[in-house]
Amino acid sequence: MRTGEIAARTDTPVRLLRYYEERGLIEPQRLSNGGDHDEHLVDRVQQIRGLLDVGIPTRLIRSILPCPNEPRSIHMPSITPDTVETLESGRDRMTDKIRCLTRNGDAITSGCRPRRSVRDPGRTRAPRGERGVPQRR
Fold first, then answer.
1. CA 126 to chain centroid
2. What is the number of other CB atoms lying within 10 angstroms of the CB of residue 44?
């Protein structure tokens, strides 16, 4: 898969993907099909973006990135109290985002249902040219 395809699938600018490469967050691999990246990088880029979104710095992300064979887990061989604090703070921000997104999703779902309008059966619509003009009785 080419860099442009990864960018499109993850909604990440190519320039940012190059930055991730420079920082050692992702590694390009020449594949037999001519592409630069394996499919697992879509998952990895999404994981990197999510961690950055909650304030975890790239230097820490590089040390907690998963092994290629377990793309959805986080492995950290040694951990300091500062790292624990940063990760817990990031986790708390993720939890807050999840709550907010769930609340917004629920609001959209309930707001998108068709509502029945109760109309006065004795009332008729004004002719096309007279809409919006108050009628005197």
1. 47
2. 22
Measured CA distances, 128 to 121, 123, 132 (Å): 19, 15, 10
Mind listing the pLDDT tens digit for each residue in 25-52?
Answer: 988 776 665 555 677 889 889 989 998 9
Burial of 19 (C-beta count, 10 Å sphere; 0-12/13-18/19+)? middle
Q: Kindly state the tokens that stand for 90.
A: 């990031």
- The structure's pTM equals 0.60
**How does DSSP assign the chain, residue by residue?**
--HHHHHHHHT--HHHHHHHHHTTSS-----TTS-S--THHHHHHHHHHHHHHTT--HHHHHHHPPPTT-TT----SS--HHHHHHHHHHHHHHHHHHHHHHHHHHHHHHHTSPPPPP--TT--PPPGGGTTSPPP-
* Residue with token string 């919006």: 132
**CA-based nearest residue to 61, from 74, 70, 72, 77:** 74
Of the pLDDT bands very low, low, confident and very high (cuts 50, 70, 90), residue 16 is very high
